[in-house]
Amino acid sequence: MAQQIGLPRWLTALLGTAAIVGIILGLQQARVVLVPFLLAAFLAGIAIGPVRWLVRFRVPSPVAVAVVVLVMGSTLAFLVSVVAGSLGPFFSRLPIYQERLRDDLLSLLGRVDSGDLPISGDEIVKWVDPGAALGFAGNLLTGVSGVFGSGFLIFFALVFMLLEASHFPGKVRAAFKSSDETLERLQTLNRSLNRYLGLKTIISLFTGVTVYVFLRLFGVDFALIWGLVAFLLNFIPNIGSFIAAIPAVIVAYLQLGPGTAALVALGYLVINATVGGFIEPRVMGGGMGLSPLVVFFSIFLWGWILGVVGMLLSVPLTMAIKLALESRESTRCWAVLLGPREPEPAAAPAAE
Predict the structure, then answer these.
(1) Least CB-packed of 61, 99, 172, 203 within 10 Å?
(2) What average pLDDT score do residues 162-184 get?
(3) Mean model confidence pLDDT for the chain
(4) Which among 233, 217, 208, 245 has a CA at the least distance from the CA of 134?
(5) CA gyration radius for the chain?
(6) What is the average per-residue pLDDT within 90-111?
(7) Up-side HSE of residue 148: CA atoms within 13 Å toward CB?
(8) H/E/C letters for each residue in the chain?
(9) pLDDT value at position 270?
């Protein structure tokens, strides 16, 4: 029988840290191949619900997969074409917006006594780029559209994932001896992620459509772009909705004046408060099961590893890691650290 070699704790921690760093760097280098498959898995998590719904009505599984994939593919192709058509005029006007913002900021700083400022107005404008939010919104949509440019890879990966879903439980039973326990863990992970992705997509779609209609009523330029930005950034909890409002308010200010911009900002506040504070908690129940600090950190970590798509998928990816850690007793302590609050201690047994 092989003997286990005992290692000092500091060496074990060092080797574990080195392994994690190596995995992160490997994921970053493989992002070109990894991102399309992650997007396909994300879309599969959304599509599995409609596929199962069709199967309940005795639609053959391959036909149900084909119908759902065709509907999703047509919708995504339409959105990508619309976004591509809207980004051209937006980027052509972006330098004008940025120059006007710079002039307005310089004018505002010029009204302040220069003796009250430690640096000049030109230096402030150079360090504080007032048009960065507009550029970020355009780059976000460009990055997402570019990823969906590899549509055939995403399409085929999505089809095979959906077809594999019905056979996967049987494979798990054949592959693992403790089949019932392992299968239950995987099914719990799958149900949690699918529920989150499905509900979050519906809520984000409602947010994006509401923002689009609201901005169209005010006549704000590129309302469709801001609606899509609101839809995408709603997948980033806590700060996504706030970031989505900034470029739309800036354009409203430049186009329609400060009064309308204030109304647009108020409208965003009402929409985000209604969706994030009222609708989402009641629809999604207990929430993500993640600490706000972990969510905030994961946005930047996955964004650094996988780019724009990593930011959008940061919460589902972190949820998957947490649920995987919860499935084993030896790693459950790490899942607790990722959770939103300290777990309640187990109740003491009643005295006889």
Answers:
(1) 99
(2) 66
(3) 77
(4) 245
(5) 24
(6) 74
(7) 20
(8) CCCCCCCCHHHHHHHHHHHHHHHHHHHHHCHHHHHHHHHHHHHHHHHHHHHHHHHHCCCCHHHHHHHHHHHHHHHHHHHHHHHHHHHHHHHHHHHHHHHHHHHHHHHHHHCCCHHHCCCCHHHHHHHCCCCHHHHHHHHHHHHHHHHCCCHHHHHHHHHHHHHHHCCHHHHHHHHCCCHHHHHHHHHHHHHHHHHHHHHHHHHHHHHHHHHHHHHHHHCCCCHHHHHHHHHHHCCCCCCHHHHHHHHHHHHHHHHHCHHHHHHHHHHHHHHHHHHHHHHHHHHHCCCCCCCHHHHHHHHHHHHHHHCHHHHHCHHHHHHHHHHHHHCCHHHHHHHHHHCCCCCCCCCCCCCC
(9) 92
If you average pLDDT over residues 237-259, what whole number do you get? Answer: 85
Asked whether the beta carbons of 131 and 102 are under 8 A apart, the reply is yes
Token readout for 183 is 């299968």
Supply the pTM of this predicted model. Answer: 0.76
Neighbours of 196 (CB within 10 A): 19
Read off the tokens for 113: 């006594």
CA distance 349 to 352: 9
- Which tokens sit at 7? 């290692």
Quick one: average pLDDT of 48-68? 86
pLDDT classification of 125: cutoffs 50, 70, 90? low
